[in-house]
């Protein structure tokens, strides 16, 4: 084997460089310097052309041994450097388990959503269908089909956001009734509730908002009587405010029902003795209702001599305010997390 002085020199220089490479990048540079295409070992191979055929294999073998020695040294050094890097990294990235963790906020159902769902569950259990309608409505379905022609003075009771002369933001969920009745083509029975947002031109204060929610209920069939309405509302009051609750009906006026009533529930806080919630009266007004006006049935194509019905409208905002002791309706719509978080706690305790 031909082992030239030059080869030995090269090998010991290379091994020294390898052992001094302080990181993986430096080691890579050493590898290129000695083993790369233009590296020193390749340079040695070029000397082969000046040798005799007999010397060539031996020379080649000697160069290969140098190459293998360098390769092996590099591989070993690489392992050492990798381990060093890993150790350093582990040391730097040690987890301090005493540090406070990042808080993950968990949401909960909005108090209004929860109240609406509770009411929906009750009516689904009674065999009602839930029907949704349009928040942007035609004047016809919002007013005219509900016995409120253009000149009707009661239109003023519901100051309206008009978009054009004939389209508006619905002022109540009643247009869903009108549309549903129209679709049924004079065929009962109809048994629906319609939850949703409604809009009125109002100056916002603690008890008024230009946007709020409503749930409308409608039953139309043969032989529906006022006592059916009363029985249904009693059930609602008990379900929402407690088994001991009673209701009372007071005469009222709505254009789309005749007769019309305001419905009060006995105070759930004082039981009827009088307190700040019921303002001393022992009763709390919770909804308006009545027997569907024959005009409304006829306009939708129902024979009012055959069919009768009742309708009621309640405000989930007001119900939620009463149930949870919320003093300002605006809290529902301003999305203050400090307000909403409190209902997370209610949910956790399983109170709602
Ligand atoms: Zn009371």
Structural features:
alpha+beta; two-stranded antiparallel ribbon; 352 residues; binds zinc ion; 19% strand
Structure description:
The chain is 42% helix and 19% strand. With 352 residues, it is an alpha+beta fold. The mean pLDDT is 89. Strand 6 (247-254) and strand 7 form a beta hairpin. The protein is elongated, with a radius of gyration of 42 Å. Helix 1 (5-20) packs parallel to helix 4 (55-92) and helix 2 packs antiparallel against helix 4 (55-92). The strands form 2 sheets. The protein has a 7-stranded mixed sheet, with helices on both faces. Strands 2-3 form a two-stranded antiparallel ribbon. The chain has helices at 5-20, 24-35, 40-45, 55-92, 111-125, 139-142, 174-183, 226-241, 294-299, 316-324, 331-334, 337-348; strands spanning 129-130, 136-138, 167-169, 190-199, 211-222, 247-254, 257-266, 283-292, 307-314. It binds zinc ion.
The main sheet comes to:
7 strands, mixed
Order of helices and strands: HHHHHEEHEHEEHEEEHEHHH
Bound molecules: zinc ion
The tally of beta strands, per DSSP, is 9
Helix content: 40-55%
First-last Cα distance: 92 Å
Adjacency order of strands in the biggest sheet:
1-4-5-9-8-7-6
Which regions are unreliable across 5 or more consecutive residues at pLDDT < 50? none
Q: Output the structural class.
A: alpha+beta
Output the radius of gyration.
42 Å
How much of the sequence is in beta strands?
Answer: 15-25%
What shape does the CA trace take?
elongated
Calculate the mean pLDDT score and round it: 89
Protein name: Phenylalanine--tRNA ligase alpha subunit
Keywords: Aminoacyl-tRNA synthetase, ATP-binding, Coiled coil, Cytoplasm, Ligase, Magnesium, Metal-binding, Nucleotide-binding, Protein biosynthesis
InterPro entries: aa-tRNA-synth_II (IPR006195), aa-tRNA-synth_II/BPL/LPL (IPR045864), Phe-tRNA-synth_IIc_asu (IPR004529), Phe-tRNA_ligase_II_N (IPR004188), Phe_tRNA_ligase_alpha1_bac (IPR022911), Phenylalanyl-tRNA_Synthase (IPR002319), tRNA-bd_arm (IPR010978)
Subunit structure: Tetramer of two alpha and two beta subunits.
């Amino acid at each position: 084997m031909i082992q030239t002085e030059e080869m030995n020199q090269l090998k010991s220089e290379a091994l020294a460089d390898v052992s001094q490479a302080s990181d993986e990048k430096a080691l890579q540079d050493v590898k290129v310097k000695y083993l790369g295409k233009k590296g020193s070992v390749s340079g040695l191979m070029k000397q082969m052309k000046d040798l005799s055929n007999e010397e060539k294999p031996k020379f080649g073998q000697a160069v290969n041994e140098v190459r293998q020695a360098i390769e092996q040294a590099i591989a070993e050094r690489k392992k050492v450097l990798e381990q060093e890097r890993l150790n350093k990294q582990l040391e730097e990235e040690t987890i301090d388990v005493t540090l406070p963790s990042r808080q993950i906020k968990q949401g909960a159902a909005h108090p209004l959503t929860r109240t609406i769902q509770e009411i929906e569950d009750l009516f689904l259990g009674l065999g009602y269908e839930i029907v949704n309608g349009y928040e942007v409505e035609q004047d016809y379905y919002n007013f005219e089909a509900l016995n409120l022609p253009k000149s009707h003075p009661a239109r003023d009771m519901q100051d309206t956001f008009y978009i054009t002369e004939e389209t508006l933001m619905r002022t109540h969920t009643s247009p869903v009734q009108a549309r549903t009745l129209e679709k049924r083509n004079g065929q009962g029975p109809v048994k629906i509730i319609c939850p949703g947002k409604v809009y009125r031109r109002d100056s916002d204060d603690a008890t008024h908002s230009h946007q709020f929610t409503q749930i409308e209920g409608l039953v139309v069939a043969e032989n529906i009587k006022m006592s059916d309405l009363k029985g249904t509302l009693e059930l609602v009051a008990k379900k929402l405010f407690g088994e001991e609750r009673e209701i009372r009906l007071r005469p009222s006026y709505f254009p789309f029902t005749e007769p019309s009533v305001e419905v009060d529930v006995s105070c759930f806080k004082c039981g009827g003795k009088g307190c700040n919630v019921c303002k001393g009266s022992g009763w709390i007004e919770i909804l308006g209702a009545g027997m569907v006006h024959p005009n409304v049935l006829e306009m939708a194509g129902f024979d009012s001599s055959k069919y009768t019905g009742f309708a009621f409208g309640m405000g989930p905002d007001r119900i939620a305010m009463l149930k949870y002791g919320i003093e300002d309706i605006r809290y529902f719509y301003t999305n203050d997390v400090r307000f909403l978080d409190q209902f997370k706690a209610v949910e956790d305790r399983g109170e709602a």
